[in-house]
Amino acid sequence: MTGVLLALNAGSSSLKFALYDASSLTPLCRGAAAALGAKGQAAHFSAQGSAAEPLAAGAALAPDIDHEGAARWLIERIGARLPELELAVVGHRVVHGGAEFSSPVRVTPEILARLEAYIPLAPGHQPHNLAPIHSLLASRPDLPQIACFDTAFHRTQPRVAQLFPLPRAFAERGVLRYGFHGLSYQFIAQELRRLLPERAQGRVIVAHLGHGASLCAMRGLESVATTMGFTALDGLMMGSRSGAIDPGLLLHLILQEGLSALAVHKLLYDESGLLGVSGISDDLRALEADGSPVAEEAMALFAYRAAREIGSLASALGGLDCLVFTAGIGENSPTMRARICGYLGYLGVALDDAANARGALSIGAGAAEVLVVATNEEAVIAEAARGLWREGAAGR
Length: 396
Ligand code: ADP
Prior knowledge:
The protein has 396 residues and is an alpha/beta fold. Helix content is 41%, strand content 19%. The protein is built from 16 helices and 12 strands.
């Protein structure tokens, strides 16, 4: 029997996973259950890698399955289809660890209760992250489960980067800028340490542009500022989230237009961003294919907002040595990279158009390095989960 490590990465509508040999961290397969809870689209499953065939062959998810159901289905299927493997440890992405969790932790019922307190701060993610932990704690209490936090990477930020200009009492009860996408930023930081050992110690901005989107400013490969804040709604325009908007507009929507708080929530999380401005899709690929004036305007606004926020982070850093694009849009859309970089000549950013078009690792032609680096949140989860699993085994 081979002991295996399962890394689970629950996003708003998908459950990505990766399976590794728990001792060597050799990847066995990776994949996703997608369109979970999506309206008008049935959930579906895909997997790639050496152990993928038995998992994916004939796989049919219930069309309306949720994250918890998909996790249970996957774990049962691993047991049934890959009988030579034994699940030794599960690592989970958990979006919010608040100010108290700055490194990965083995989840006990007591820790789970503390993590549940953060659900209101990340309503689109935290429940999906915690549901599989909950059901596995009940069904397999001895199976080590490790929580890895998206907020943890940003705990190095100076206090000014974490404070809101609100009365002090708010900060004292935890109303701070936490920042998210930390597992992705941690992976990119590790890659940069390898790729550009000296330059990457300087002023780096990483643009994680996926359905959710944010930027992280790093110095010495530690986070010093980020565009998401108390929630994952702040900062950049996203697939269906607004990003930063005038806070007075929220007051206007509630007080003058009479929208309920729940209606504002739905508007800002689910109906805005690329989807809201285009009225077509939250998916950049669909907008690039559409090319109509409204699709064009949505893409132009996405690039403009990203460029403005890059300027803001460059101010926090005092300049820019290296800009890194990652995640679905950052890794795959030369057009969006070019639109954004078009604003940034004053920071030493210029593109090598041919390198950009083919998605080369290094696409810059100016004083600042510009890189395209594929992110891998599951690898960060796996590394951390193996570390705590081994410590636990050694402590017994
Ligand atoms: P998340 O993990 O946040 O759900 P992803 O990192 O998978 O999201 O990014 C999804 C986004 O990436 C979508 O807007 C999608 O259109 C975009 N994307 C993926 N591939 C391409 C591509 N080849 N060209 C343009 N956009 C792409």
